[in-house]
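User: Hello, beginner here. Can you help me understand these amino acid letters and fold codes? It all follows right here:
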Amino acid sequence: MNVRRGLVARFCYGVGGIATAVKDVAVVHFLLLFYTQVAGLPGYLFGIAAMIGQLVDAVLDPVIGTWSDNTRTRLGRRHPFMLGAALPYALAFVLLFNPPRGLGTPALFCWAALLLVSTRALLATFAIPHAALGAELSTDYDERTRIAGDRTVLAFLGAILLPAFAYREIFRAEGAADGRLVPENYLTYALLSGGAILVATLLASAGTLRHIRQLPVPRARRELHVLDPFRDVLFALRNSNFRRVFIALLFTGAVAGVSTMFDALGWLYLWELDTDQTSLLALSSMLPALLAFLLLAPLSRRFEKRTLYFVTLLVMIVNVSWLYGGRLLDVLPENGTRAIFWLVFTYNFITIAALVIYASVWPSIIADIADEYEVEHGERKDGVFFAALAFGLKIPQGLGNVLGGFLISWAGVTMGMQPGAVPEQSLFRLALIAGPFVAAALIPPMLALWRYDITRARHGELRRVLDGRASRA
């Protein structure tokens, strides 16, 4: 079933990406700052809390994927999960930024860990079935990339507009104090984000309801046992192409786990951008996101998906190297100048464009692997594949969070530091981690996917087999 004629359904489906974007915005821009610089939780303890959330989330992902694959209701097998997670996820997110006042360090750690677990688990309950739904909405090789691109671009727009508004209107400087260090601002931010979650999840669910009858269903109801989801993951890993993608994302998850711990600290301390500049930087990210979206269709027609994957990673390696390498070598302009802002702007532009294309390609790759699996085994397992990838991504990401937390302590960034007052050694260490460390760690994911072999021609053969089976049935 293809949805080319259903632009409304494609838009509604894509809006669901905002539910994930809200979490990503919090992780990249505000969560670390809130807990370490405002609430007073040491960096290494926040890293451990983040790892606990990631690990529990990783264990739940295969359960959700297998459960969703084997669900049969009048609302299909994806929508009951998507609708059921909407309100609880929004509420958990609000509570994440509102620990009770007066908590000591042990209690604050427990609150952070508990709410991180809850928020991530509820997001996974929506996001795993939502990702699998996207793979099922079309059987066309290029259309799948466009559907994934809809979700990716709308998610990026949400990830751009939300922090841009928050920096400019919620976290504005209050006298001599930076607004990002004022506790009360985080309640307003959390309520705004919770509302965005609720709208995105409900719209994505309601807007695709009419396609339920055209989606694949499990051939028979399967009695599930506790270990079945993990057996499904191991069985999925027998597919050589999926194994290559899985290994690539293991490395990517570790890189993301470390780098997301440093993004907000870099903007605040390493580049000393004020909230107006940060808001403008976030808002201007719409330009590369839209440019990448416009380029996605012609690029996907012109190049193989593996080629696009390689090129985007290579661009990110070069990009992170020149900016942070320039800071380490002390050849960049002074902080506070227009020149440094425009250099950071250029870096951000290139990063966003590459990430949009990268994030659109790999879900489309998984949909093609699901076709290959169905040809080989006669059963469709989109939920298992996406859950297995989430499992493989989040465990190293959680370990990366812990490493990032300890690296923050190693860098010497402590609670309440104002921009411009951070020791030079701490700035050097921040740049070392965010630059050369990240660049080197992005090389293994490129090598892991070197032998991936589902080309456009190969996928055409797979679809002919599946379409032939469908017509005979």
Remarks:
- The chain has a mean pLDDT of 82.
- Residues 7-213+224-472 form a domain with the Growth Hormone; Chain: A; fold (CATH 1.20.1250.20).
- The first helix runs from residue 7 to 15.
- Residues 140 and 297 are 13 Å apart (CA to CA).
